């Protein structure tokens, strides 16, 4: 946490953000869902997908790029799959409907695949993996952004992919005896962008937050950069952060391996779902940016492994027992950083950079929403 960060209790922040969306004519239920998921991203340490997105979401809804209270449309269906159109509804409203459909089918058939297209920004993908894991299911998610190209492929400089997140979540083992039936150890959660950094991390850096790691960006002439202006063009404190204004790109993580995974996220999350791959907005205009997500849900009880979640936890403990490398305090399991940050931020409050807080106050004032004390 930086010295000038503002610490806000999660409950206060959730009510404030929900009030902003209600003032933008969202239903109380939808406003609450959006606020819950944005704050959940902050709680897990992914500030790039947290309340910093509020001004952008308000802009999307007031200009008709995202729609209020949309019900998913199931365009094809069998006991083990469904193709779902989100019709550019808020991702926080479309996501739960699509995931719950996958959970219901996998609980009955042992597995299910849900091909979701045209959802508004669906936020932190870990929320969807955790929702399935809370129901005892393993899930795998390939995600793309139609009309959202930001990332240069390995060996290239021009943008060809979005930040295409990939997620796998394994349910945590049941807690010690005496705990409630649904109480679990933290889920094992892989959840990251296939770009070296998520776009939101460039956004955070551009507002004075955590600087970008070496080589995160590439300029149009092919040199590596950590300057957010590579993505957003020339910036002042108050100028909008629009990737369309920049000429450079974010780099794919892991050289050819990350680039190939991003490629497959576009094919599965974009083309197979019917939403479309990353690419320039037709006519170069400001278009409707949407997430596509191909999700695979597996009920471990339908597979042969005995005590699957307990064995997965034992394996995680074994991995964590590897002796720490120099200057590394300990080995962590995937999902552990998010779990620890959540515990700490629930207890101590969520740190927000002053710029992020100011941008929330500005949007709240424009909608006559009272500012929390
Ligand atoms: P990141 O680079 O912080 O990686 C997070 C992942 O790495 C988690 O699974 C975490 O548990 C694991 N991890 C971190 N440190 C670890 C350690 N020491 N040992 C073991 N595992 C460790 O994530 P990111 O790429 O910056 O992505 C941030 C968020 O942005 C994600 O939640 C992602 O879903 C979201 N995102 C969404 C979109 C979208 O279009 N909706 C696009 C891109 C990213």
Question: Please, could you describe this protein's structure?
Answer:
- The chain has helices at residues 10-23, 28-43, 54-62, 91-109, 126-134, 199-206, 229-232, 255-272, 308-320, 336-348, 354-366, and strands at residues 6-8, 73-78, 81-89, 111-119, 138-146, 151-152, 166-170, 188-192, 217-218, 224-225, 249-251, 290-298, 350-352.
- The longest helix is centred in the N-terminal third of the chain and has 19 residues, at 91-109.
- The model has no long low-confidence stretch (mean pLDDT 93).
- It has three domains: 1-63 and 335-373, Hypothetical Oxidoreductase Yiak, Chain: A, domain 1 (Orthogonal Bundle); 70-193 and 256-331, Ribosomal Protein S8, Chain: A, domain 1 (2-Layer Sandwich); 196-251, 2-Layer Sandwich (Wheat Germ Agglutinin (Isolectin 2), domain 1), CATH 3.30.60.
- The chain is built from eleven helices and 13 strands.
- A hairpin with a 5-residue loop joins strand 9 (217-218) and strand 10 (224-225).
- The strands form three sheets. Strands 2-3-4-12-5-7-8 form a seven-stranded mixed β-sheet, with helices on both faces. It has a four-stranded mixed β-sheet with strand order 6-11-9-10, with no helix packed on it. The chain has a two-stranded antiparallel ribbon with strand order 1-13.
- With 373 residues, it is an alpha+beta fold.
- The two termini are 21 Å apart.
- 36% of the residues lie in helices and 18% in strands.
- Nicotinamide-adenine-dinucleotide binds next to strand 5, strand 8 and helix 10.
């Amino acid at each position: 946490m930086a010295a000038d960060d503002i610490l806000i209790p999660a409950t206060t922040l959730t009510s404030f953000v929900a009030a902003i969306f209600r003032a933008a004519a969202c239903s109380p239920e939808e406003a609450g869902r959006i606020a819950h998921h944005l704050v959940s991203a902050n709680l897990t340490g992914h500030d790039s997908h947290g309340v910093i997105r509020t001004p952008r979401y308000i802009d999307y809804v007031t200009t008709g790029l995202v729609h209020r209270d949309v019900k998913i449309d199931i365009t094809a269906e069998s006991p083990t799959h469904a193709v779902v159109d989100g019709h550019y509804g808020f991702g926080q409203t479309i996501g739960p409907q699509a995931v719950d459909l996958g959970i219901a089918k996998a609980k009955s058939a042992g597995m299910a695949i849900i091909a979701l297209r045209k959802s508004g920004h669906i936020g932190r993908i870990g929320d969807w993996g955790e929702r399935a894991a809370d129901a005892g299911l393993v899930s795998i998610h390939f995600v793309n952004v139609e009309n959202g190209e930001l990332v240069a492929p390995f060996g290239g400089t021009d943008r060809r992919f979005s930040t295409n997140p990939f997620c796998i979540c394994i349910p945590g083992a049941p807690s010690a005896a005496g705990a409630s039936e649904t109480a679990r150890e933290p889920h094992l959660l892989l959840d990251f962008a296939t770009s070296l950094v998520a776009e939101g991390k460039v956004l955070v850096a551009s507002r004075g937050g955590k600087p970008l790691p070496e080589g995160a960006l590439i300029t149009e002439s092919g040199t590596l950069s950590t300057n957010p202006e590579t993505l957003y063009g020339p910036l002042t404190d108050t100028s909008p952060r629009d990737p369309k204004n920049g000429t450079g790109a974010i780099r794919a993580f892991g050289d050819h391996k990350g680039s190939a995974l991003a490629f497959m996220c576009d094919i599965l999350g974009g083309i197979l779902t019917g939403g479309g791959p990353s690419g320039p907005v037709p006519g170069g205009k400001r278009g409707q940016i949407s997430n596509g997500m191909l999700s695979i849900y597996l009920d471990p009880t339908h597979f042969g492994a005995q005590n699957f979640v307990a064995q997965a936890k034992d394996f995680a403990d074994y991995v964590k027992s590897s002796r720490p490398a120099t200057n590394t305090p300990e080995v962590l399991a995937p999902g552990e950083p998010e779990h620890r940050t959540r515990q700490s931020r629930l207890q101590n409050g969520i740190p927000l950079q002053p710029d992020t807080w100011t941008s929330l106050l500005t949007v709240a004032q424009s909608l006559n929403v009272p500012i929390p004390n």
